[in-house]
Model the fold of this input.
Amino acid sequence: MSLAPYRVHKLIQDLMRDPPRAAAFAEDPEAVFDAFGLAEPEKAMLRDGSPAALHKLGVHPNLQMKYARLRARPSGPPPAGGGPLAAYLDRLREV
Amino acid sequence: MGRIVGGFATSHVLFPPAGVEAQAGRVLDGMMRMRAEIRALAPDLVVLAGSDHLNNFSLAMQVTLAVAVADSFTTLGDGGAPAVTFPGNRGFAEGFARFAARRDFDLVQAEEVRPDHGMAIPQLIIDPTNTLPIVPVYINCNMPVPPSPGRCYRLGGVLKDYVESERPAVERVVVVGAGGLSHWLCLPEQGKVAAEFDLDFIERMIAGRSAELAQLSAGEIETASGNGGLELTAWLFMAGAVPQARGEKLYYEPIPEWISGMGGVSLTPVGA
Done:
């Protein structure tokens, strides 16, 4: 797998560290795409956002997951429900 | 001289048990067995080797081998693991960096990291009291150019020499490698589990043949076990710290629903 241009990864990395900008991305992704200087084919694949499109673009696997979270939950608290360890936490916390 | 009194390795994720209750139960049993065995060894500290999932080290600054030197660490709180604070051991960690530099390993010293699930879930398994000092060593296979398996194994040997030559005589150290086994993350093969490779890796490791495994290239491991399988380089770091050690399989379950082969081992250092 060849990696996407760094500007694509920089966009995801920067948004993950900047909640206000992540919120702005949710409102107007095109402006953020432009701010990071993305080429039209890169924008198209990020708009698509599917695993196949992100893989084709060469987005690092860990950043694919972060990008999916940015699109699903651009800001705000994590979803309720206890998370993937919920069923095990009582036993894992036994001292 | 200090002593490495045990070597362990384990997968570093858990997912909801729905649909795979029996396998999930055996995985948790294996993890809890690892905790019990570590506790029985009464270590003064644990060296925990694993990867970072682009949470602390990004593509902006691609760190492959690092030791976290801070006095304490607060975990990131991702992957379902609660954010907790546990002690490090600055003297041990900085001393390891200095010793390793004399042995041709230039380790990045990390002051500010928030260990993500790759270390936080193993830490929760090892010590839910959050009182046992843990020194995180990053074997960062998620970087575009990962450290080679052989180099990770040799770094484990450097850790052994450091403990035995520079640490206090009473110090008891456990080494844990975290991650793996086979999984293809965000790739078209996602969901595939290479159980045959996983079990062969485990069997050779517990038979004292880890040096053979360290001869594999990163590319060979990735081809056979996926990009996530490269996390086995943390297992090889651990194995390098307990050369020729034999041991036991703690658990192994191929769980496509979790997109991963899940496993763990316990190694007893030669002479222990």
